[in-house]
Amino acid sequence: MGMSTMNAAVLTRPKQIEMKQTGIPTPKDNEVLIRIRAVGLCGSDVHYYEHGKIGRYVVEKPIILGHEASGEIVKLGAQAPAHLKVGQRVAIEPGATCGACEYCTTDRYNLCPHVEFLATPPYDGAFSEYVAMRADLVFPIPEDMSYETAALVEPFSVGLHAVRRGGLQANETVVIMGMGPIGLLTVANAKLAGAKTIIGVDLEQNRLDVALKMGATHTVNLRSENLADKVNEITDHQGVDVAFETAGNPKAVQGAVASVKRGGRVVVVGMSPEDEVPVNMSIIVDSEIDLRGVFRYHDTYLAAIDILSKKIVDIEQIITGKYTLGETAAAFEQAINDKTNTLKIMVYPQ
Asked: Which residues form a coiled coil (predicted)?
């Protein structure tokens, strides 16, 4: 570690990413310095790149994006715990919460209002050669786990938390709206939870094909098939126990509400571009439907690493493109311009 500067892909303004030399961070006592090996490109990154904001989070100065990251420890802060060693390969949980508020002290730390989350303004992310990270957010991975799988622990955690929030039980029936990376990883987690019937819904046939490989039992292509008719046919006119909305699309929210049985649960994971989405309240009241929001995840990393280390889920089949750090701008353009063929893009900072 003789150098003092590193390369980083910096979003300088919407749709403008520039390669810059920036200082390698010095880890604080409770941090470790990580050489970043793989970073997944997330829909939220693309949103910041295109629009400069998501909801109440606004990019006001140049920012390094990327929060789905893995790498190896190169330096330990003075108080780093004994189980972490230089050279260790790790997955990074990207949200440093305060540990003291009512949410942090009641096992819902994903709701901490003081969280510092990688690549959420004003905090820099991981499209860079090195990142300093609080030691309690750094999780060793098995030697035979790839850096790609380790980076995907982050979006896999969203699917795992969504399934937990939905209270999904073995033998229940599920519909999942939207077969992007989060939808596909929700499919995988629904299968792991023992769902009997898993219906994947999307407009793109190639995404539905991947859904079947990830554990979906049925698919609905909205370009050629009617959602209500298909759900009725598959569930014998009962509707599903749980509907997950992972598309971030108002129509998908409405489709999810319409697909559940009386007394069913609707779990909304996707962040819609519109703050307000019209839903049929009379159905929600008359059928006593539970509507549950999902924000990121909590307490998922150890479980996710354990699940993925068993190789039951072939998570890397969602990777559709690989780019170097210098090609980060091209990776974003690929994600925007070829939505049909793009699922998860990986960027390699080394």
From this structure: none
In the chain, residues under CATH classification 3.90.180.10 are 5-151+314-348
Answering whether pTM is above 0.90, one says yes
Work out the percent of the chain whose per-residue pLDDT is above 90: 95
pLDDT at 73 exceeding the cut of 60: yes
Task: Report the top-level CATH class of 5-151+314-348.
Answer: alpha beta
Return the CATH number of the domain spanning residue range 157-293: 3.40.50.720
The amino acid present at 171, given as its one-letter code, is N
Give me the mean pLDDT over the 288-298 stretch.
Answer: 97
67, 43 in Cβ contact below 8 A? no
Amino acid letter for position 260: V
Residue 158: closest CA among 272, 50, 52, 44? 44
Q: pLDDT digits over 299-336, tens only?
A: 999 999 999 999 999 999 999 999 999 999 999 999 99
Q: Which two tokens stand for residue 79?
A: 């108080």
Enclosing H/E stretch for 219: strand 218-221
- Distance between CA atoms of 19 and 51, rounded to whole angstroms? 20
